Amino acid sequence: MVKIKFEHKILISYLLVGGLWISFSDRLLIKIISDPVYMTEIQTYKGWFYVLVTGFLFYILLKKHLLKIRDAEKKAKESDSLKTAFLQNISHEIRTPMNGIVGFAGLLKENGLTKEQKEMYLDIITKSSDQLLIVVNDVLDISLIDSGNVTINKTQFHLNDFMEQIYSAHGTMLRDGFSLELNNTLASANHIVFTDQVKLIQVIDNLIDNAIKYTLKGAIEFGCEIKENQLLFFVKDSGIGIAPEYQDKIFDRFHRAEIETTKTIGGAGLGLSICKGNLDLLGGDIWVESKLGIGSKFFFTIPCDFVVQEITEEQKEDIEWEVSPGYVLVAEDEEYNFQYISRILTDAGINFVRATNGKEAVDICRNSLNIDLILMDIKMPVLNGYDAVKIIREFKNEIPIIAQTAFAIGDEKQKALDVGCNDYIAKPFKKDELLRKIKRNRI
């Protein structure tokens, strides 16, 4: 349907009403009135009536249009205000850990530091780096969700084991005055769910982190149950609570229950938006019940998609580490990245050889028989990682290839798998994550 512009609506309405009024009223008056003086008087009243009718009609149209403009203007101002507050908060959240990283890295260069001081400085740098990475990942996640570049990768896993792992991970990081409780009504140990495990853990982690952040002390409880053919998860806290007027807004982009809380409570304020975006992709829903000063209880649902078969051995990661006599080919052009990877491999007793570009990686694979895994960087000179993998697959189809890249926009993992990679790891990665990938894929 073609949308008519407002000014055209006004013109059409004016001509239509005027034309109809003149045509039908004049014909009727000529038939019943013959006195010219009386006709003139009637025409005057008729003109005023027309002016009043059209004026009232235009008033209605203009008011309706102006209300839309004013509403849009109000929303634009509110959006600008929220975006400004968001950017200020993001700036604070980036600069704060960067200050710790830059500051304490500089202090490490000083002479005369004790072992305890060095360990403390390194611990601060590590924690600040993790904090910075969380902010960057949140911004990238919300950008990917908004642009529609997120896909669902469903796998099967034991839901009870999954919940126990989350409980163990967060239970070790609680400060004094806190307790974490897992209330899981899924009694069967054989409940295997088929969904996107990464998205699910991201939602639960965000909600638990929020509960810890906004709770000074007390109990935090989370769990899962089956309700109306859906999996119903919840995270309950005894924190500061959320005012009723904010409860519908906290899941929107750039919104935060109280902007003032950014002065005392850290975080970019994107966690709940990411939760909602992920649950929309999973076909679920999220909502909150909260009272100020008492606490909040967040609920979310996903489709209840259980499977009967057991998890395959390939999906389990409890295999023993075995040192292979072969070599891992590290295709990496950035020197600092290579030094980091080489240190991890050396400490693990893994033999490796380096390629500084894609062509060199292809040549090494073509001429060497004892390469049993490839860590392939995607962005490299001469020949990029994707093209290098395609060529390698022409003569070595059995060798495992793990793509490693700092690209975060778009479905890079699926692209890597499509060209022939067996697995994918995103930079920055930690030591245990890399070794886990190598252990899972190595011949």
From TrEMBL:
* Domain Histidine kinase, first and last residues per copy: 89-306
Which residues does the UniProt record annotate as the domain Response regulatory? 327-442
User: Catalyzes what?
Assistant: ATP + protein L-histidine = ADP + protein N-phospho-L-histidine
This protein's source sits in the domain of life called Bacteria
Q: Does the keyword field hold Ribosomal protein?
A: no
Q: Which InterPro entries match?
A: CheY-like_superfamily (IPR011006), HATPase_C_sf (IPR036890), HATPase_dom (IPR003594), His_kinase_dom (IPR005467), HisK_dim/P_dom (IPR003661), HisK_dim/P_sf (IPR036097), Sig_transdc_His_kin-like_C (IPR004358), Sig_transdc_resp-reg_receiver (IPR001789)
Can you tell me where the transmembrane regions are? 12-33, 45-62
**Keywords from the named record:** Kinase, Membrane, Phosphoprotein, Transferase, Transmembrane, Transmembrane helix, Two-component regulatory system
EC number annotated for this UniProt entry:
2.7.13.3
CDD domains from the entry?
Answer: HisKA, REC_hyHK_CKI1_RcsC-like
Any one Gene Ontology molecular-function term assigned to this protein's record? phosphorelay sensor kinase activity
Tell me the PROSITE patterns matching this sequence: HIS_KIN (PS50109), RESPONSE_REGULATORY (PS50110)
Q: Which Gene3D superfamilies match?
A: 1.10.287.130, 3.40.50.2300, Histidine kinase-like ATPase, C-terminal domain (3.30.565.10)
4-aspartylphosphate PTM sites in chain numbering: D377
UniProt xrefs under PANTHER family: HYBRID SIGNAL TRANSDUCTION HISTIDINE KINASE J
Under what name is this protein listed? histidine kinase
